[in-house]
Amino acid sequence: MAVRWLCSLFGKPFDGGKRMDHGGSQEQQQHPMEQQQHHPAMLRLYDVQKEVSALGPQVCTFSGLQNEREYKRMERELTRLLLEVDQVDTEGRAELQGARKRAAQEVEGLLRYLEENATHPSRLAIEDLSTAARQLVDERVVEPQRAGGVAEINDELVDALQELVLRLTQIKTEGRVPLRKARYRALTRLCAVQDVLEGRTQQQTLSLPLSGETHEAVHRINQVMVKVSMARSQLVALLMGLSGRDSCAHLSRILMELQVELDALDVSGNAAIRNYRKQVVEEINGLLKHLDLEGEGDDTRRYDLAQNNSIREIEAVRAHVSHLREGVLRHCAAGDLSFRPKAELQSLLTHLDQVDTAKNPCIREARRRAVVEVQAIVTFLDLREALVCRQPGPAEHPAHRAVWLVLGSLSDLQAQVLGFDGKRADKSYMMLEELLTKQLLALDAVDAHGDESTKMARKQAVKFAQNILNYLDMKTDEWEY
Question: Looking at the domain covering 39-119, what would its CATH class be?
Fold first, then answer.
């Protein structure tokens, strides 16, 4: 394969140098191109190309940073090959010089690709968020356990982790495999930590372990529970790269040994103890499922979500939503409010709710965004209908009337937002953002004079305006899978 690649540099087919004319020796009958293929310089370039072909896939899927051992190894190997190419003696022959130049360009291209991905702003952003997650988990979970205390798992910690997950899903990868792979690895580990901590939160609410006096097997199960708690902390440390000594394989062996110990217990005849053992076994199984992450991300199907069936389902729904949105806007522009596909939109929401996200944060985010797109059309239709059906009485509070005037303006602006298909740098985007902000200021200036219905209407109008702004922001944030 390497030989064919170098031969292609000259635009000639490769025949392996084995052609012979009638009765003549191979050496005597060789074409000049064949002689060139057997030139020492060309043979050396063939050898270099074989090594480059072996390194290429490794470089193209490397998702680490410059300070990692694997990066330094590949950089060292490529630099060595570049020096070897440079030292090839072409004897001043143009064909050999061209072959050497092309070989050097390929090696330089791999070096450049390796460095660009390892130093890409998105890769550094992934690392910064991963570091923030490690610091948070180390401070709140791992360190208290190592000090002999108990980690405090509360909503604040769970929310902080969820915020980091959301920020990771929003990092742009530009379709680069190494960046997708790095983001996927960071997300899978952080989501696994979330699962482990959520399981632990649920366990803290249970009235277990049982008293050791109930049955002789309970004392053994209680001892296993203590070991499982320690293993849970070790797993969190492993997932976040905070454990230098343990490995996933070692921890897996420990947990499987605990399962064997539990299976050997005789708990027949006591339903409470059987349920207790079952609960601990399920806890162990929950930890074991997260121990296969060492090879996670090597299969491109895991992080190339464009090929994911759930993403395809979501995209199909989005295409349907886009068609309905165009129809709604077209009919509204013509003053026709008879086109109200709310039942169809509701069925799409039900469909999205049934999409399997496999706990993948990127798929969850894709589904959430599709839901927002559907809800934006539903709220637009609801407000249009409310404006048409509105029949204000003579005793209507002036402030209440002012809120409805703002809602009328918001409905017109929402139609423009629904139809907007530009970028944040566009003048139309900035105009829409400014007009929506003015409507929020107009609502803020409404004085309800203590009228409760007006207060409630103003509050709902403010929320409605903010939702339109958020939707406009979502449409232009260039999010990717």
Answer: mainly alpha
Burial 80-102 (b: 16+ CB within 10 A, else e): ebbebbeebebeeeebbeebbeb
256 and 225 Cβ atoms separated by less than 8 Å: no
Please tell me the distance from the alpha carbon of residue 190 to that of residue 183, in angstroms, as a whole number. Answer: 11
Do 217 and 267 contact (CB within 8 A), yes or no?
Answer: yes
Tokens representing 469 are 């702004």
Q: Give, for 14, the enclosing helix (H) or strand (E).
A: none
pLDDT in tens, 433-462: 999 999 999 999 998 888 888 899 999 999
pTM of the model: 0.63
Please choose, from the candidates 14, 20, 49, the residue with its C-alpha nearest in 3D space to the C-alpha of residue 33.
Answer: 14
- CATH fit for domain 310-476, picks 1.20.58.120, 3.30.420.40, 1.10.10.10, 1.10.287.1490: 1.20.58.120
Measured between alpha carbons, how far is residue 83 from residues 44, 66, 103, 211, 281 in Å? 12, 21, 11, 72, 58
Q: How far apart are the first and last CA of the chain?
A: 35
pLDDT tens for 6-28 read 334 333 343 444 433 444 444 44
CB 137 within 8 A of CB 243: no
For 49-88, give the DSSP string. HHHHHHHHHHHHH----TTSHHHHHHHHHHHHHHHHHHT-
Specify the DSSP element, H or E, that contains 412. helix 398-419
For residue 287, the tally of other CB atoms under 10 A from its CB is 23
Tokens in use for 14? 């490769």
